[in-house]
Amino acid sequence: MAIAEAQLETWSKQGTVPQSSTTYNSIKNVLEAEGTPYFGKKYEVFLQGSYGNSTNIYSESDVDIVIKLNDCFHRDITRLPAEQQSAYKSMHNDAAYTHVHFKADVLKVLTAQYGANVDPGDKAIAIAAGGNRRKADVISAINFRRYKKFLSFSDQEYIEGISFYTSSGTHIVNYPKQHSANLTQKHQNTDQWFKPTARILKNLRSRLVSEGMLEAGVAPSYYLEGLLYNVPDDKFGRNYAETFASAINWILESDRSKLVCANYQYFLLHPELPVTWREDKLDAFLAAAVDLWNQW
Predict the structure, then answer these.
(1) pLDDT, position 15
(2) Is the CB of residue 259 less than 8 Å from the CB of residue 227?
(3) DSSP 8-state assignment for residue 135
């Protein structure tokens, strides 16, 4: 047996958008209001996650928001030759207003607006749902630069991402803009099949969890998007059943050491990095997905 095409088509549909849009815009307005402690500094507010990438499903209600300070940055210069590292260090000074100050100020601004609905959280500042507002997670981050070249301020190359620390002190570097741009390009390359198929994987994951076939948290949406991103473009199309089967079969037969995150900055699987998936969890998801397909 196989999962019915009608069921896969239902799973392919995007979740609600208007309420998520209202939530994002209202929180963005609070973060960008005049009079904040960081008003006048260079920063930007943008979406990440499923809603930002149009891969959200009905059971995913969180709106993921990043506020990123661009006035200072963390950096990785380890790939530079020794002389370029020396040149970099000679031309840069430590910032006076850092990620620590910025996160404290962002938390202060959100608490002043939403009061007890705000939880500082581990990775993100959580804002509880209320009224017409969905639950939201706000990551306070600063710029990150992974340098490819540094000769001078006018002759440098780097890949830009975001950098922040969890409450337990874990340093996280990620590249949400590259993730989003690459998903959109993949969607175009597959003649608009990629994002509906990503939503199918997420809904299937939710079904597996609800039926006790997979533990919650084993297959986060971010990694499912990254997993599907690796599937060749020619595996998408015709219908959802064929696309799903072709994608899963390709993944099962793939060289997993070559699977990449959708941002193309990390391999998808790594035993330690906080922004990568664990191979045993991928195994658990694939086994459960195949079981559900065969038992349908």
Answers:
(1) 87
(2) yes
(3) P
Angle between helices 18-31 and 99-114 (to 10 degrees): 120
Q: Which residues pair with 150 in a beta bridge?
A: 156
Structure tokens of 289?
A: 């997905």
Coil, strand or helix: which one is 3?
Answer: coil
| Average pLDDT over every residue of 266-275 | 96
pTM here?
0.94
Over residues 261-271, the mean pLDDT reads 97
- Structural domains of the chain, with CATH: 18-174 (3.30.460), 179-295 (no CATH)
Written as one letter, the residue type at 51 is Y
Q: Alpha helix locations (H) across the chain?
A: 5-11, 18-31, 49-52, 82-91, 99-114, 176-189, 194-210, 221-229, 240-253, 279-295
Burial class of residue 9, CB neighbours in 10 A (0-12, 13-18, 19+): middle
Q: How far is CA 81 from each of CA 74, 75, 92, rounded to the nearest angstrom?
A: 19, 15, 17
- Locate 281 and state its tokens: 């969890």
Which own/partner pairs from 233-242 qualify as long-range (CB within 8 Å, at least 24 positions apart)? 233/186, 233/189, 233/190, 236/190, 236/191, 236/193, 236/194, 236/197, 237/190, 237/191, 237/193, 239/5, 240/5, 240/8, 240/9, 240/12, 240/196, 240/197, 240/200, 241/2, 241/3, 241/4, 241/5, 241/8
CA–CA dist 238, 168 (Å, integer) = 47
